[in-house]
Design a protein that fits this description.
single chain, alpha+beta, three-stranded antiparallel sheet, 3 strands, rod-shaped
């Protein structure tokens, strides 16, 4: 009887672990996974960008295609087709 209870307990524990790991960890642990941009900013925000790094985000719903810059207040999601974004990237890549 105790072997049966142990087996059921282990099975339930396994199911709980699997369910927990398959949930949206993107929102739960933002420090571990880069933020997702659901939209891009309108207008030129070049003055808000700090540092000389950026990363590209592919369009995978709910995320949109974006260039992510760092600002004093957090990530800035910019339109990769905006001219100010292209100019800023070009100035960052010049050696």
């Amino acid at each position: 009887m105790s072997l049966k209870i142990l087996s059921i307990t282990l099975l339930l524990l396994f199911v709980c672990v699997c369910c927990h790991s398959s949930k949206g960890t993107r929102r739960r642990h933002p420090g571990r996974i880069p933020p997702c941009c659901p939209a891009v900013t309108k207008g030129n925000k070049r003055g808000d960008v700090v540092g000389e790094t950026y990363r590209e985000q592919a369009a995978t719903p709910p995320c949109v295609k974006a260039i992510i810059f760092n600002t004093e207040y957090g990530p800035l999601c910019a339109d990769p087709n905006a001219q100010w974004v292209k100019d800023l990237i070009a100035s960052m890549t010049r050696v």
